[in-house]
Amino acid sequence: MDFAGAYTWVNIKFLLEGFGVTLQVAFFAIILSFFIAGAVGTVRYAKVPILSQVFAVLVETIRNLPLLLIILFTFFALPEIGISMEKIPAAIVALTIFEAAMISEIIRSGLNSIDKGQIEAGRSSGLSNFQTLRYIVLPQALRRMVPPLVSQFISLLKDTSLCVIISLPELTHHAQVIYGQNSGYLAPILLFIAFMYFAVNYTLSVISRRLEVKKFNPPGSDSVSRIFPLYS
Amino acid sequence: MINFEKVNKYFGDFHVLKDINLTINKGEVVVVIGPSGSGKSTLLRCINRLETISNGMLTVNNLSVADKKTDINKLRTEIGMVFQHFHLYPHKTVLENITLAPMKVLGQSEEEAKQIARKYLDKVGISEKADSYPAQLSGGQQQRVAIARGLAMNPEIMLFDEPTSALDPEMIGEVLDVMKALALEGMTMVVVTHEMGFAKEVADRIVFMDQGQILEEAIPAEFYENPKEERAQLFLSRILNH
């Protein structure tokens, strides 16, 4: 193990560049997949005819495939039918497809978890279906969705490392490049990138816990903080 | 005001409402009683189309409830509903619970809606809880908020679906008092309840249901003194002598 040799400024700068790509890919994939999943999840929750069946088939198919396969397919197979992309867009597309399927299930089950009585109370006061969703169901469902959403986002960020398979110049790929030159660097470099992944993901989960406890839980409600006092 | 004519309702093969004929007039307080599973709640829920009828004719204010052309959201603004389990919105304060529909459906300004909400909170006796969240209130208080929420829409009809069944015994009185006051003001009310004292004192008419049918309709004194139907006699003896 050669820590001094591994942690040169050149190497660290190279890793940081890779991390920049990791964050960039994760950021766009999170934004895109969240909006697509929001639409898909809501359509399936509302049981919009035909569309919701089509989405159900798509979601089930994608959810049951390995992400690695989707990445390979997007980058290597799609060009054969005329859709070729650079590495970064290909990675974003592949991750978005997979994560949108996962997140749409979180959104659908979050919406479904709201007591039907809430909907009846809203509808019987004259609110339309959409207004009931917008003012009654969604705000409550969102609160419940925050923890699984954040953990899915964290998964997504970690899963960007699978893009080494298409040589996406992200953090894990750059680590491989460095320790490929000298096997003594392997452990120090892996430790270093482990720390980087951990730092970002841990920050995300801490922020989500804060959000959960402070913003979304009105006083006196059944909050996570009451069930698990450690959280507060 | 509310008129059932040969109304039937099925849940799949299950015949929940059988040939219901019932007329409820403006200002009347009708209490629906009967054993569980007799279809009383379903009957009530048909009035604002929380349940759809299978056939027959059901009108509210001479509008067919089942008719696709009827603007159901508009009709529902005329019909307040109070549920067994309150169904207050847990993410909103008491005041916000009450002002939501008046603002979004009737288009009231926030100012106006709040003023009206406070008036009704005062009426149900919990004006000091305006800024609390539902989870901070007792069951009785929550149900009174739910009544205020219904009243804030200024409805012509109030439906009550077992409003005291989920309450601790010592809280039932406070909710019934609010309902009595409402009845005295001339509100048209349809109440599904097991509270016989309330029925006797407040109801203009008792409707007794069993197995999806209306077996007996009578004024309370008559019904309690001298129920005609054997099934009603049995039901009364069970709930009054325990």
From TrEMBL, chain B:
The keyword Nucleotide-binding applies. One of its GO terms (molecular function) is ATP hydrolysis activity. Belongs to the ABC transporter superfamily. SUPFAM superfamilies: P-loop containing nucleoside triphosphate hydrolases. InterPro entries: AAA+_ATPase (IPR003593), ABC_ATPase_HisP-typ (IPR030679), ABC_transporter-like_ATP-bd (IPR003439), ABC_transporter-like_CS (IPR017871), MetN_ABC_transporter-like (IPR050086), P-loop_NTPase (IPR027417). The keyword Transcription regulation does not apply. Coiled coil: none annotated. This is Amino acid ABC transporter ATP-binding protein. Residues 2-236 form the ABC transporter domain. Keywords: ATP-binding, Nucleotide-binding, Transport. The lineage of its organism: Bacteria, Bacillati, Bacillota, Bacilli, Bacillales. Pfam families: ABC_tran.
